[in-house]
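Chain and conformation:
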Amino acid sequence: MAVTPQLRAGTELPPLEIPVTRTLIVAGAIASRDYQDVHHDAELARRRGSPDVFMNILTTNGLVGRYITDHFGPTAVLRKVAIRLGAPNYPGDTMVLTGRIEEVDGDTATVRVVGANGIGKHVTGTVTVTVPTGGAG
């Protein structure tokens, strides 16, 4: 039987480490139909002033969603994802996602999320998630 996580303001979610590989960056860009060269061609990315390819916002958005649903379970429904990018995610780094429940209203919570890498905060924002009572079980 699945157990639904408690929804309490102030609860810290466990961190999730995501290795930022070249494959993850390129696959995420292709999957989201983002063919900008800075997401798949290292030489062209360097010509544009970047040291390497870097992750696109759609991949980041998906990873933030995964972080929330990994914690709250398969019945969790993402209601709103509001994120802002900061430091780029380059191959060879690790992004560590952390979260804290800021507000709770019934079965809905607002979670502040931060994803940091070796050069700073890659993503910051909030996710509003509904977690139906009773879980998936």
Q: What stands out?
A: Strands lie at 12-20, 77-85, 93-105, 108-117, 120-130. The mean pLDDT is 93. Residues 57-72 form the longest helix (16 residues). The chain has three helices and five strands.
